[in-house]
Amino acid sequence: MLSPSTAGLMALSCAIVLLMPGPTNTLLAAAGLRQGVRRSAHLTAAELAGYLVSISLWGICFTHASHSMSWLPKLLRVASSLYLAWLAIRLWLTADSVASSATGVVGVRALFCATVLNPKATLFAGSIFPPTAFSSPATWLAAMTIFTVLLIPIGLAWIAIGAAPRNGRMPSIRPALVQHCAAVVVATFSVSLMWPLVR
């Protein structure tokens, strides 16, 4: 099990990283913009599922197979970059239809895949979660419980941020402009992932 000091430090670190802008948070905000808070709230479950899968796989990889699978981080970096680039293009091309369309580019599958490929998962698995979380089921459950309690309200907050222009709280900002900005942010993350491999 986690000691109180370990649990507190992990909770603080998780909260900081989850609050940071990134591809998943950008997509949550884009969903809030297009569909509103109520119709997008379920996407936090897709985010949680994506992180559970990715953090667990990365943790097992770091713990048991880091030496024999040295190629895996590069492969995942390329896959993440390409997927985020595809999402950025879709966000950009559908931005002008935000106000009139009831369907969105950000669905459960897209958000789950983007979260599985989110580079933040490697940070959680390699630095923030205690190493024992990937060798002890009880510690894994305790760590994931802390993570879940933090992720859901933070994910909802990002959806609410995206929904603010839609709800008239920021009337001077056009929804299409917000989605174009979201596309640029996601594209920037895509380039930042690929850049170390091509320079």
From TrEMBL:
GO molecular function terms noted in the UniProt entry: amino acid transmembrane transporter activity
Topology relative to the membrane: Multi-pass membrane protein
Subcellular localization(s) per the UniProt record: Cell membrane
Broad class of where this protein is predominantly found: membrane
InterPro entries (UniProt xref): LeuE-type (IPR001123)
Key words, A-Z: Cell membrane, Membrane, Transmembrane, Transmembrane helix
Keyword check for Cell membrane: yes
Coiled coil: none
One Pfam family of this chain: LysE
Gene Ontology cellular component list: plasma membrane
Residues that span the membrane, as ranges: 40-63, 75-93, 140-164, 176-198
PANTHER family the record matches: ARGININE EXPORTER PROTEIN ARGO, ARGININE EXPORTER PROTEIN ARGO-RELATED
Protein name (database record): Cysteine/O-acetylserine efflux protein
Organism listed in the record: Paraburkholderia caffeinitolerans
